[in-house]
Write a structure and sequence with these properties.
The chain is globular, with a radius of gyration of 12 Å. Helix 1 packs parallel to helix 2. The protein is mainly alpha-helical.
């Protein structure tokens, strides 16, 4: 399981993206975001890039322990279904409040 650091913002998105891509290339299918507390729009872009990389490898990528602020951004940008196609990664009950 890949676990990014406490921050996923424009300041560290490139490094974090590359770390996650290496994990996915190695067959990783779960990214635990439980340690992430600081996010911005770069976090959403990073998750989308990871999802795309996994799909290109034929993997089903799952995101777990999404912080509420990241769930809000995912909802704001309308990409919930792209990041959680099975509905398990982002709980619907926490969206649209």
């Amino acid at each position: 399981m890949f676990r990014p650091s406490h921050s996923l913002t424009v300041g560290n998105a490139k490094v974090t993206l590359e770390e996650g891509l290496r994990a996915i290339a190695g067959g990783e299918t779960e990214i635990d975001l439980g340690d992430v507390v600081a996010v911005d729009s770069a976090a959403v872009a990073t998750l989308l890039a990871w999802q795309c990389a996994a799909l290109n490898q034929g993997l089903n990528l799952h995101f777990s322990s999404l912080p509420a602020n990241l769930e809000s951004l995912i909802d704001l940008y309308g990409v919930t279904e792209l990041l959680a196609p099975t509905g398990v990664a982002v709980a619907a009950s926490t969206l649209h409040h």
